[in-house]
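Hi there. Long-time user, first ticket. I'm pasting a complex I've been working with (about 1104 residues overall). I'd like to know whether the download I got is complete or cut off, because the file seemed smaller than I expected. Thanks.
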Amino acid sequence: MTIKFPDIDYAAIAPLLIMFGVAALGVLVEAFVPKRARHLTQLVLALAGLVAALVVLVTQAETRVVTAGGAIAVDGPALFLQGSIIVLAIMAVLLIGERSLEKGGPFVAQAAITVGSEDDRRQAARADGATEVYPLATFAIFGMMLFVSANDLLTMFIALEVLSLPLYLMCALARRRRLVSQEAALKYFMLGAYASAFFLFGVALVYGFTASVQAAPGRMAGGVDFATIHAAATQSPANRALLFGGLAMIAIGLLFKAAAAPFHVWTPDVYQGAPTAVTGFMAACTKVAAFGALLRVLYVAFDGARWDFTPVLGAIAILTMLVGAVLSVTQTDLKRLLAYSSIANAGYLLVGVLAGVREGISSTMFYLVAYGFTVIAAFAVVTLVRDADGEATHLSRWAGLGRRSPVFAGVFTFILLAFAGIPLTSGFISKFAVFGAALDGGQTWLVIAGVITSMVLAFPYLRVVVMMWLSEPGESTPTIAVPGALTAAALVIGVAATLVLGVAPAPLLNLSDTAGQFIR
Amino acid sequence: MTLSPYAPIVGLFALAAFFALFSVASARIAGPRRYNRAKLDAYECGIEPSPQPVGGGRFPIKFYLTAMLFIVFDIEIIFLYPWAVSFDQLGLFGFVEMVMFIGTVFIAYAYVWRRGGLDWD
Amino acid sequence: MTTPAVYLAQDPTLADFGHDPWWISLIKVVAAFVFAVLATLLGVWFERRVVGFMQVRPGPNQVGPFGLLQTLADGLKMAFKEDILPKGADKVVYFFAPTISVICAVTALAVIPFGPMVSMFGHQTPLQVTDVSVAVLVILAASSMGIYGIVLGGWASGSTYPLLGGLRSSAQMISYEVAMGLSIVAVFMTAGTMSTSGIVAAQAGSDRSASLGGFEFFAPGWYAILLLPSFIIYFISAVGETNRAPFDLPEAESELVAGFMTEYSSLKFALFMLAEYVNMVTVSAVATTLFLGGWRAPWPISIWDGANSGWFGLIWFFAKVILLVFVFVWLRGTLPRLRYDQFMRLGWRVLLPINLVWILALAGIRVLQKENSDAVRWGIIGGALLVILLITLAWPDRRKQPPRPLQEQVNARPQGSFPLPPMDLVVPPSPRARRGVAQRQPANVGGGAPDVVDTTSTEEKED
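Hi, the file is complete. Here it is re-exported in full:
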């Protein structure tokens, strides 16, 4: 018996390996570095690893290869999305590392302690937080990077778990409002496990489909790599129930991560309960990963079934935009409002995904990057508005903030305008690109829905703007904390990127356009 | 008629099951029944047995931790078995891969050790 | 190889299984079951006699010749005892738990090779119930399923001691199952198969590594010698896995009455005992098969060519098993019980890392032997040195932390703790104790030699 070893192009997957190595090193740091030095070591390690991975990724920019036995595809979209995950993750890690706003940072050491117990009170007073959040974050980043480059459904599932499990844990680590944080983690975990099960069941059905199609003598048996699925799906056999069932379940698993309606119900609670830095991380990086994977699944594997899934996913996109836009009008908590706005944005992204043309891929990728920068900046501002109980996220508390601190109110106004899609911000360019691609692809109905919901969605943003500037600051108006160097850096990067991408989007548009070609 | 090599395992299983169930059932018939309320109480040192909550009650979290560690290492073992059986065919490639894998699990092991996950008290 | 090819041909291979007519399979199944029951009956007797011998007392010697039928009498007695169903018990689970233990213990015997090919009623058939390509996995599966019997039995009793005993035993057994599962990886690596008959044949095959350093002396290919660390770890974890002394913590009399079987009586109790002894025999048989050359004759006898043929195999097999069971009993007669935390520490912190390092070292050596390129060799050696260096550097400090001063410990107590008595409290000697000492004093003076009196008085002064 001879065994054929897979060829592994180590250079092409070097960014992945670097992230995994950094995560493993982070665990060792937790084990062996003295407690006092841990935070700094971890922060430097995580940032250095991210930068190193980015540098290696840039040197690999021309790579187009399927490697590791067909498990990983390193192509244009994979490299572009991996790069954007790394850049956004650098901002998120900067936010996570901020310790000047709160004694001991925004995380607790032991998330499982019963809320309100003696131990819990002692923990709240302790000055040291969980530095485990760094290895968790780097593991999640590794999972996301693998997620967007997975070339078969099983690798994709592994990546999904690798990115999800650390996120569940990170949600439970908030130093303030412990009960809400624990609730968020549990809800996210329960629903996420459910979605993962859907995904896995879908994989099984798709495997059954490919096996039934290729059962002809002399043909290979079924498989779950994208090339096999594509070959089977384009043969258009008589019975495609397994294909549709499998695709539907896989899509549920992915749309759950992307927070599309009706699989969005976890989003507001989790965004609200999780530590704000982690929320920013999830809102930006998880979204990139989820849509990256969705793009790959729909364009590479199930391209042959495009005419069958587009109406269904289109309906989901419209529903997502509607739910996000309408419900964000009724929100009274800023983190929840941003959560519903993130749901609505998932709808716009879906419009880009469903365009079905090459511009769809590149515009979706552009949208993901632009939105990621803006949303992390938004959550960075949320961490700054504080009172004695921590962050003041209730909308009414933000009234009059413009009088008290015009700079930050101005920055936040700019961010909100970007969300609303006002010209000269990245939000306008990205929506324009996505809707343009959808028009090219003949999905006019989606564009109409998108434009209408965008107008609805502008209302809650503008309401916040009005509240900040046109109200008098009262007794309960919180102060705006002076950001530490890390938060300031993240905020500056985010705002600057939002502005630059709004004024001069051409370089990134070109980059995403050249990268927008999958290999099979 | 010949049998699958797995069939005798099932046969032995069935024979053992028959014997065990027969024993358990016959003990009800063969043994005497002398009712005594105290005899049916839980065996304990005090006069009144401590009440048992429904469903077995709660027990120390250490047991859960041990169970999770067991899962981690049992899965590692499951990956080691096929590698070990075809070790000669896998050669250097298999060795290097396995060193990576065991090394990765070892990192987690070192973390658990240092954080007191292996202390029992 | 001293054995001629004609005898080697008697080595059953995987292809020899699955060809028996159904009635031969049936005979083998029944024989294996009878072996399990007989092994228990004789095993209990054996244990009691040997422990008796070690403790300088006769042990059971009344019922039957040499007391051989003592266990049978005990078993029959148990059948006529009242079968108690405790009030708090979960009736269904309580009923089925002992059967799970027994079934799993017995099923593992299905893949143990008792001997070579023999002629049975005119059929050439291996002396083994059956063998499959994953036979050792069958054994492991059966032994881990057996844990359910104990856990569920403890849980379903609806009582505190059995619950704790059941939990303890589950934690203990899964901890030692890890060590056990890892220890046989080296065997698979060397033998290249998981079938039990294949492993026995592979051990016979590696006999020929005979000439060492120019001397021509015989080295048996037993994996107990080739893979000594694996064998030691396997045996230690086998003791832990079967809940035998000194690892019999789930049924520690001094702490938990009888552990998970506290509430069991009558034949249900007997079934748990049966399962325990069958398990002991099974792990001994597995150790024999995997490490001690199976049914093959030990070295001096194996010079005689006929020793490995036909039904003779049974003799060597049983001799080895009995030897191992004797070691089990010997351990019980000699060693005190471990404390639970020490026991878990042994499993997780000693056996597990040693095991993994040993597997990697063995794999590295074997790759070294096969690879011809110098770069790979130096790579492996350099890697090994690097790992050793890293482990030495990162090894946790053995120095004890100086104990914190008492006052600091008191201050560190959380708010609302129980009040402490003053630290310098001296309890005055109770008048009754003083009176007792005074009464004893004259007796010592009167009865003992003068030096005895002296020691007592110095002791008292020190007090």
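A couple of notes from our side: Chain B is about 65% helix and 0% strand. Chain B touches chain A through twelve residues (CB under 8 Å).
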